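Below is how a single chain appears once it has passed through the pipeline. First comes the sequence as given, then the structure the pipeline wrote out for it. We keep one example in the README because the format questions we get most often are answered faster by looking than by reading.
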Amino acid sequence: MEYEHLLPDQVYTLSETGLYWRLLPKKALVAAHDFQRQPLIFNEDVQRVTMLLCVNATGSHKLKPLFVGDAKVPNCLKHVKLDCLPVSYKQQRDALMDVSIMKDWFLNEFFPQVTQHLRENGLPQRAILVLENSASHPNDGSLQSADGAITCVFLPRNATCKLQPMQQGVIESVKRDYRKSFLSLVVSEKCAGKSMMSLLQSITIREAIYFVDSAWKAVPQQVITRAWCHSILPDWPEGSASKSDTCDGTLLDQLRVLRLSEKDMEDWIHCDRDLPVCATLSDMEIVQFVGTDASFVVEQESEEEDDDDCDSLIMYVPSHNAAVNHFERSLIWLEHQDNCDTSELLALRKLLEKARDKRYQEWKRKSAESCSELSKRSDGLQ
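Resulting structure:
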């Protein structure tokens, strides 16, 4: 960096990682009313994407994530304006990164986003992208701007694990937050009475896109700067300590609902750590996956009021479950509009998450009241 006269804001890195976006923990309780409490295995749905994350050394500029999936356009995203989504989406037969996708991303995603960031922050229009030596990262001079001001440098082949900042806890932080959001949705829907199978069918890659966006934005800057300090910028002042990687209270609460141990959670979080991400691997090494994206199905609210009854509409306060269904419908509607805006999508998504959380909290309260009532009855019989 000193030789190139660049600031940390002008130095970027990226990393690709595989993600099983709809994989449940190995043990999950089928239904809340299953009195035998027999955990069943639900680890067969191994649909995956390859995810690319890119950020500069200060963590001040996180680029839009890239998803590489096997479907040209997933069913749940058909007729949706893809430019409005918080991630970019590309198709590859095996959902793996290849040279053509990498070149397209560099020219059409990395270059314009970086130049805009440099311009908005009054920095020289110069930057470097630190890359791993990989078959999907062409080292032929194609990954650079026309004037060479924005270009790539490659890490030594045998030192990638030690020198790649994204492998120093950044990728794990994103996946941990993703699993937390995913599990929150599973618990919320399960508490609303859905069976595990219907629940899985209702979760599509559309949900995964928003979960990844939220998890990526939630990574603190100090976690990123600390990762760079532990890799290729050892002399740079280290950021403050990040939050603990152990399961927090919310996760433990969700684990109790699904009758999972903390070890089950850790195994689940790391289940796709060693997935291949490069398209040149042999077929024997490519993880086989099953199923296709299920179309998103919105459950009809059984207590919906008559739209023609104005008085009842004025007095009617939707239940938390009704609010979840309404926001889900609204999100689908907005995604199909020509003038759809990403900020509007994320704002509506935030309201949906709030409604889901309210529904879950209501379920917890009712469950506690039910247990208390049963305890009182038991004491009375004695």
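The first strand starts at residue 11 and ends at 20.

See the next section for the split statistics.
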